[in-house]
Design brief:
By secondary structure, this protein is an alpha/beta fold. It contains twelve helices and seven strands. It has a domain of 184 residues: Penicillin Amidohydrolase, domain 1, CATH 1.10.439.10. It has a five-stranded mixed beta sheet. A two-stranded antiparallel ribbon has the order 5-6. A hairpin with a 5-residue loop joins strand 3 and strand 4. The relative contact order is 0.11. The N terminus is likely disordered.
Length: 319
């Protein structure tokens, strides 16, 4: 039924909510469905959402698959995507004011400035085409919100803002997250500058390798003691909202309630911090088949992410 429905017209995106046990069985009896005409699609595309809210996207072409993925991500997470876009482009201060200037300066300082096409195709032979299709899909949904503002979630109303269009460079801007150990590297450099490489090795544990800790002659060891990561840390920190960020027409005037929530959140994080041992363990581990109850080997892996809402991860099934 669904396949016949979407096959009648080209450039059609099908969004359907179905029973989980029928999700991979076609034709399907849909509980709710919407048919949309999107100008960026080459062929009909089908999106099925299961009872856990996970989207299963079926497309005839690679372009349409990633276009639909971008559209669907924007439909589910547009405010999150808008915050990421502003963090990536150094435009947070435009909506939150002077307190975010240092963040935006840092973002623009670390902006990717090399050959974008070459960079995107480094990840995949058709990386540029795929990522452009993805951002085109995001922008298609944003265009829908421009035509129908009721599609925007309450966060946009509270802040009095509208989402901006994505460009492919926004996608790779998230790669600054790969520099998570930069603080540890700086701390090691400071110790080496102060007491020398051999003393640092004697006082520290490095394994299983034996890293070379000699200071590069081009580095000014004394300068390492300065706050050289200040602007980097500013653009890496999370966005925090204040009561004054809410536009006047959306305020209820209960600023004290907001302050109480903020204080409660800090208290809760402190309790968790004291109750958890801070250490670095293995990112994955394996149990041999001879040691498992099932007789099969077991492997566990985690993404090293804290719990958050919305989650950093976005589950989707692409076919």
């Amino acid at each position: 039924m669904l396949r016949n429905l979407i096959a009648d017209g080209a450039r059609t995106l099908m969004f359907a909510v179905v029973a989980a046990e029928l999700i991979l069985v076609l034709p399907v009896a849909a509980q709710e469905s919407t048919v949309l005409d999107l100008p960026g699609l080459d062929q009909p595309v089908e999106i099925l959402v299961d009872q856990w809210g996970i989207s299963h996207i079926y497309a005839e072409t690679e372009h349409d698959l990633f276009y639909a993925q971008g559209w669907n991500a924007a439909r589910d997470r547009l405010f999150q995507l808008e915050l990421w876009r502003r963090q990536a482009t150094g435009t947070v201060a435009e909506i939150l004011g002077e307190r975010e200037l240092e963040r935006d300066i840092g973002t623009r300082l670390f902006k990717f400035r090399r050959d974008l096409e070459q960079e995107l195709n480094h990840y995949h032979d058709r990386g540029s085409l795929i990522i452009n299709a993805y951002t085109d899909g995001i922008n298609a949904y944003i265009t829908q919100t421009e035509q129908d503002p009721s599609l925007l979630t309450i966060e946009f109303e509270l802040l009095g803002i509208k989402p901006g269009h994505w460009t492919p460079d926004v996608v790779i801007s998230r790669h600054q997250g790969l520099l998570g150990n930069i603080g540890a590297e700086l701390a090691t450099g400071r110790r080496v500058a102060e007491i020398g490489a051999e003393a640092v090795k004697h006082l520290s544990t490095y394994g299983p390798g034996d890293p070379l800790l000699e200071m590069d002659p081009t580095i000014d060891g004394e300068a390492l003691s300065e706050d050289i990561l200040g602007i980097y840390n500013a653009f890496r920190r999370g966005v925090r909202f204040q009561p004054e960020d809410i536009v006047d027409q959306s305020r209820r005037g209960d600023v004290d309630a907001f302050a109480m929530l903020e204080e409660a959140a800090l208290d809760a994080s402190s309790v968790v911090a004291y109750d958890v041992e801070q250490d670095i363990g293995s990112n994955n581990w394996v149990i041999d088949a001879t040691r498992s109850e099932s007789g099969f080997p077991m492997m566990a892996n985690d993404p090293h992410r804290a719990q958050g809402s919305p989650s950093l991860r976005y589950w989707v099934h692409l076919v």
